[in-house]
Amino acid sequence: MDLEFKSLSAEALEDLTRYYGRRHDQTCDSVILDNFLWAKYYHVHYAAIGERALLWTMNIFGKQYAALPVCAMEDLPEYFGILERYFNEELKLPLEIYLADEPAVEYLNLPAERYSVTEVPDSRDYLYSAEALRTLSGKALHKKKNNLNAFARAYEGRYEYRTLCCSDSHDVWVFLDKWREGKGQQVEGHLDYEVEGIHEILRNCSILNVRMGGIYVDDALEAFSIGSYNAREKMAIIHIEKANPEMRGLYQLINQQFLIHAFPEAELVNREDDMGLPGLRQAKMSYAPIGFARKFRIRQLDFVPEQRSET
To answer: Where in the numbering of this chain does the Phosphatidylglycerol lysyltransferase C-terminal domain appear (predicted)?
Structure first.
């Protein structure tokens, strides 16, 4: 089968979204927006196979990887095989899946003599009760509620939550410029790509299936969030959450209000991974996750590259 991989564009997203939601998956990769957000950073490309499957490849730090095929669970072995043949025959490489979700790994049940399957703990997604994050009730979230109440007292009558739309893009750009400037030069290498990805979302928000919300203080945007919804899992996925760190309780407020207004139907919340960063891990753990969406690296072991004949 000849596969034609294309670079990802905003125009393609609406059509490609139809491949999602065909099997159980609670990772942030169960919706398409993350691929678009990080398309340039990971050099993301896709190939659609009829109506049944969508394949993804990416180049990460100079190494070629793939994602698991996006398809129904019963079709996964077939398209996993097609992806493997593409890597072996076209790229002359062993197949490597960068991050595979746990239900798919269990279903594939790959033989240990042919594949290495290793969990990547730093890439597990944090899962939360949507109701708990909306109410901040209970001992575990008491400190979060105190911070939120402190913000409400300090800025009483001066703030409001607003659902953001395409016409609000300028406000987000102004906020991002200030936020990025505040980070300085000593930051994670991915940060500028994240900002660029957010700009791409805002430029194309009229054709993207995203939900956005922000907190305005004195009529200036001081926090915003961008998310997607996985209807099969009744799960909100929070891709982006930024806030002015000088305002105590603002992160708690945007977290809560975004769920209340943008995802009233959600029962589960995926707040993505911590990238192995201790500060981010501490922040995500402080919201009392109810579980994790574990991810695995898969590497083909039995690939033997073709030997060039000596003449």
So the answer is: 36-297
